[in-house]
Amino acid sequence: MKTFSERLTAAMSAAGLSQGQLAEKVGVSQPAIQKMAAGKTSGSRKMVELANALGVRPEWLSSGHGVMKLDSQDEHYIPPEQKFGTVDTGMTQLTLGMMRLRFLSSKILNLHVEMVALEMMTTMDIS
User: With a cut of 50, which residues of the chain have pLDDT below it?
Assistant: First the structure.
């Protein structure tokens, strides 16, 4: 799949999500998802959120590089919060710690996606 819109549409189909459902999960409008799926935009500031909602790797969704699906055996995989489990003592600290981890992880993935995009732009032959 060559374009972001093709990858987005394929990931939506694989996840069984409609444009409206994806928009709700990501926190954007359905028309915004429709524009992305129609190829009217080449990406989104919500790339990591889109990828997480669709269960795909952000770098694949943004650039087509790497594998599509997240794998629970992947060293970079962070499970959804509902899979973290509970601890009676210090649960608040554990939950906050995991939230910080997810936040930092999404920031790192955003930076990675931006770096891949910059690399692609600098290696393209613009003549």
Answer: 87-91, 127
Q: What is the DSSP letter of 89?
A: T
C-alpha dist (Å) from residue 116 to 41, 81, 101, 125: 18, 28, 22, 16
- Measured between alpha carbons, how far is 59 from 67 in angstroms, rounded to an integer? 9
pTM for this structure?
Answer: 0.57
The token duo for 93 is 């600290």
Q: For residue 3, give the nearest of 46, 32, 40, 48 by alpha carbon.
A: 40
CB contact at 8 A, 46 and 18: no
The torsion of the CA quartet 38, 28, 74, 118, rounded to 10 degrees, works out to 60
Alpha carbons 72 and 86: distance in angstroms, whole number:
19
Total length of the chain: 127
CA proximity to 3, closest of 73, 82, 62: 62
List the one residue out of 45, 31, 29, 34 whose CA is nearest residue 8: 34
